[in-house]
């Protein structure tokens, strides 16, 4: 093997994203697979100019059964309108680079990068656990949020159908639910949702990040096309199911110019509510999004992060209640003002739809089990 002259050779460098995963990342959002923050060791790939490994095949999605002991998660956050939620899946194949739930994969010893979108966990006992928890003595019904961390209608729901089984239980118990998704697969369950809507038990929030299909493919590679999401809003609305559009996340200098267009398209399709969330970068997400910009929009990275810091008190992320969703300062106030004016101009109702928990009942068949 020939020797190298240390004086003339460039220093080892961290591998560029395209080199680290050449041939493996087609259809994936993250550019790397960094170690989680709880790992005892950290590994980095370097190009020293010598032999490089042969490219691996495309990354495959794996699904592992998670034996959950309970299914309803509780929170006491004062800046969100629900105190309980259900996530049928851990990890999400949509691969949205900006997903604030990515760091949660570190809790199971996996990477918030490519692992988050390829190594998934399903909770097949979700419906059974839910029925048990709703039947417990002293349970007080309040709206359950379905899909707050990972999308309940991500691609594996087509075969696992856990979300549908959860909705069947909620309908049986006459329990209110709010659904958050960016998938048109939600229309599959219009039969259940329309029955729940007639009892004022459900509303669906559809996330539309951009109307630009090329940008969507880069940011959220396995999520449905933006037009499919708008079609889902129309289909649900025509079925009598109330729909909210969420322009989220708003990413400075990338999709913030689309706010009014997204709200207009959604309103034309029947959306009755609209909200937004400013980009959140907790924990490892800071580096993941920075690396993504370096690969896809290198010329914008510094400007984008400058605007993020302006809206986060000089930091990349501020977890304080009341500020974490919408930020603060001139830029954040401008976005909030544009949202308010667009809602008024487009005729979105000023009041949010409240769901009804008064019809909650524990079916007799369930009572006989306990």
List keywords for this structure.
370 residues, alpha/beta, TIM Barrel, three-stranded mixed beta sheet, 12 strands, globular
The appropriate CATH architecture is Alpha-Beta Barrel
Low-confidence stretches: 1-22
Name of the level-1 CATH class? Alpha Beta
Number of domains: 1
Number of strands: 12
What fraction of residues sit in β-strands? Answer: 5-15%
Average pLDDT value? 88
Largest sheet: 7 strands, mixed
Strand order of the largest sheet: 4-5-8-9-10-11-12
CATH superfamily: Aldolase class I
Which range best describes the helical content: under 10%, 10-25%, 25-40%, 40-55%, 55-70% or over 70%? Answer: 25-40%
Q: What is the radius of gyration computed over CA atoms, rounded to a whole number of angstroms? A: 22 Å
Shape: globular
Question: Could you tell me how far the N terminus lies from the C terminus, measured between alpha carbons in angstroms?
Answer: 73 Å
CATH topology: TIM Barrel
| Total count of helical runs of at least 4 residues | 13
Q: Please provide the ordered H/E string of secondary-structure elements.
A: EHEEEEEHEHEHHEHEHHEHEHHHH
Structural class: alpha/beta
